[in-house]
Design brief:
This protein has 95 residues and is an all-alpha fold. It has 2 helices and no strands. The longest helix is centred in the C-terminal third of the chain and has 34 residues. The termini are far apart.
């Protein structure tokens, strides 16, 4: 039987139906998601602390978030390998 005629298995999908990225993408996807989430929360706290709950809060928060994310994402890409090495040096390996 010819292998080219056999059906290929469907590619893995996310819960949103999108095709999953290859495993090698984890090196930038994890810092991307971490930086988005962390800057979202920290910029909200900082903005509320400075301006309080005002009508300008959403606009000020989003501009603060954008600026902080522009700094945080490249920073995470640069420091994450160092943090992984330091963590490995102070934490016993599993198993």
């Amino acid at each position: 039987m010819n292998d080219s005629s056999s059906p290929t298995p469907p590619s893995p999908r996310t819960s949103w139906g999108l095709r999953k990225l290859p495993a090698r993408s984890a090196a930038w996807v994890m810092p991307l998601l971490l930086s988005l989430l962390m800057t979202f929360i920290v910029s909200l706290i900082s903005t509320v602390r400075v301006v309080g709950f005002s009508l300008d809060l959403p606009r000020l928060w989003m501009s603060s978030w954008a600026l902080s994310w522009l700094v945080a994402f490249p920073t995470l890409l640069l420091v994450l390998p160092v943090v992984r090495r330091v963590t490995a040096a102070i934490v016993e390996p599993q198993g």
